[in-house]
Amino acid sequence: MVDSKKQWKAWLYLSPVIILTLVFTVWPIINTVRIAFLNDYTLMGDAGGMTFSVGVKNFQKVIQYPDFLICLKNTILLTVITVPISTFLALLIAVCLNSIKVLNKLLQTIYFLPYVTNTIAIGMVFATMFSMVGSGFGGADPYISTAGIINNILGVFGIEPVNWVNAGSTYWANMFVMIVYIVWNALPFKILILLGGLQSVNKQYYEAAKVDGTSRVRTFFRITVPMLSPMLAYVIITGFIGGFKEYSSVVGVFGEGMGPAGTEGTLNTMVGFINTNLMGKKPREGIASAGALILFVIIFAVTMLNMYVSKKRVHY
Q1: Regarding the domain delimited by 58-131+166-313, which CATH topology (the fold level of the hierarchy) does it fall under?
Q2: Is 50 exceeded by the pLDDT of residue 135?
Q3: For residue 108, with 0-12 CB atoms within 10 Å meaning exposed, 13-18 middle and 19 or more buried, which class applies?
């Protein structure tokens, strides 16, 4: 324990971090809550000397906004679908990587590459892979005609080309592309966490199971999953938090329109809704702040639910 006479030195060393945290983290949170309860608040109006009454009008406008339910539905769908799939695939890949001795480090590096790559850049690559190009497919270039990389692969198996992301594509085709992209992008971090957990599991458990003639499937569910339950709880909770904050992935694939040409906004998310009101042509900071608080409450409730469930399922 630090001597009370020398504590001022510790506070002095910590003061730059504390000041930065207060200015750039604590104050913005407090200000967001304040703005959310100021009816019809705008930054320009505040700068012009306008006064705003206290109330919940901003929250009412958020809920009554025509696209609010679309944004909420898209956010929930992307989260509920991608988190279980990415967690399950990450667990399988981590188990496989842990059992491979040759080229183990190289494979870990390859799987981790998407995590350190720009999200928008990856989204553009996915958009290109799923796009149809050329006059025959509604593309801009009359000299190039291709159904796209993914459709060409499907064509090998006799499957007709699907309009995934171009104008005229369906909502569920767009959603499928987003699910594939988000799952793929979420795998590296989860694999890293689960692989680290696997490498810390006492090998005696597996040796005892082998002596008893336990099958691999039973060993997986009776030893591997329970021993990894703390890590699984962590990646699931962080996965839900990240899922509810999805925005850049949709922008990466579909651009700022948040949907194919002619259907702008069909894949908008809650964070996209907040950003639109915050940085749109007519910024409405009050509505954006109210939307941010609603999103915070949703994330907080889901996190608390996950933590409650994990208390009964996690073995430390």
Answers
A1: MetI-like fold (1.10.3720)
A2: no
A3: middle
Does the structure show a pLDDT above 70 at 315? no
User: How many CB atoms lie under 10 A from the CB of residue 149?
Assistant: 13
Place of tokens 């407090």: 30
Task: Assess whether pLDDT exceeds 70 at residue 209.
Answer: yes
Q: Which two tokens stand for residue 225?
A: 């999953």
Question: What percentage of the chain exceeds 70 in pLDDT?
Answer: 92
The CA angle 228-96-309, to the nearest 5 degrees, is: 25
Helix (H/G/I), strand (E/B), else coil: 146: strand
Model confidence pLDDT, tens digit, residues 146-163: 778 898 888 888 888 888
φ, ψ of residue 146 to 5 degrees: the values are -145, 145
Looking at residue 56, its amino acid is V
Spell out the residues 6+ positions from residue 285 whose beta carbon is closer than 8 angstroms to its own. 35, 41, 42, 43, 277, 278
Extract the tokens encoding 272: 């996209």
Distance CA 268, CA 277 (A): 13
- List, in sequence order, every residue forming a beta bridge with 133; answer none if it has no partner: 146
Query: Residue 67 has which token pair?
Result: 């696209």
Domain ranges for the chain, please list them.
58-131+166-313
Separation of first and last alpha carbons in the chain:
28
